[in-house]
């Protein structure tokens, strides 16, 4: 895996995967599916690119049909559909704002109507806007970040819950910043801490129903969120400060979601898997 990425930046968020150099690795050449998710249906927010796309393709290789919700990155979404279908599975791309409750209800309704059921929910969509000072975070930015990262997670889970039966799995994408913080991502880190608490609380709430709730806390992964968040100089140093001294690829994170979605993790709930390049965090 490359230890550095070229300096680059994008002027819009969400970022666009088809404009990244090099392109993120979606699935490793040696990854072989073994039917771990055969017959299941998954819904992934932010599934058009980055970690979400990689999870979608890994799920498809394991036998799942996959629906995904994305904002307006239509070219990236079309490629994700192509990759899922190339694995021999059904794909459904759904455009809309995850921070809107009606959009989330529609996404779940369309998933169940067109794919027949819902077994795995991945709350992955997120945005971040760095600021040097707490005083620079406007009410508009604060609400926008929480609406996407936290409200969207609540709305989509609420919509999905009536369709999840015993054996179903909910997986939330939190972050290493929930554990060590970030001096320039104050609001984003706060949302990621909220996602950890949500994961632990909902896992207890749903235990008697046989629905497991877990999370993954990625470190510096090479996704469109990076060039769309930081300046070119910061992007070129992405991942340099972790023990493995490089950014991770989405393909190196997605197998953690396969584990949490499958029966392999049948005795795991309320937990967070740390895929972060060797950074040791507590909790």
TrEMBL record:
<dbReference type="InterPro" id="IPR057326">
    <property type="entry name" value="KR_dom"/>
</dbReference>
<dbReference type="InterPro" id="IPR036291">
    <property type="entry name" value="NAD(P)-bd_dom_sf"/>
</dbReference>
<dbReference type="Pfam" id="PF13561">
    <property type="entry name" value="adh_short_C2"/>
</dbReference>
<feature type="domain" description="Ketoreductase">
    <location>
        <begin position="40"/>
        <end position="225"/>
    </location>
</feature>
<protein>
    <submittedName>
        <fullName>SDR family oxidoreductase</fullName>
    </submittedName>
</protein>
<comment type="similarity">
    <text>Belongs to the short-chain dehydrogenases/reductases (SDR) family.</text>
</comment>
<dbReference type="InterPro" id="IPR002347">
    <property type="entry name" value="SDR_fam"/>
</dbReference>
<keyword id="KW-0560">Oxidoreductase</keyword>
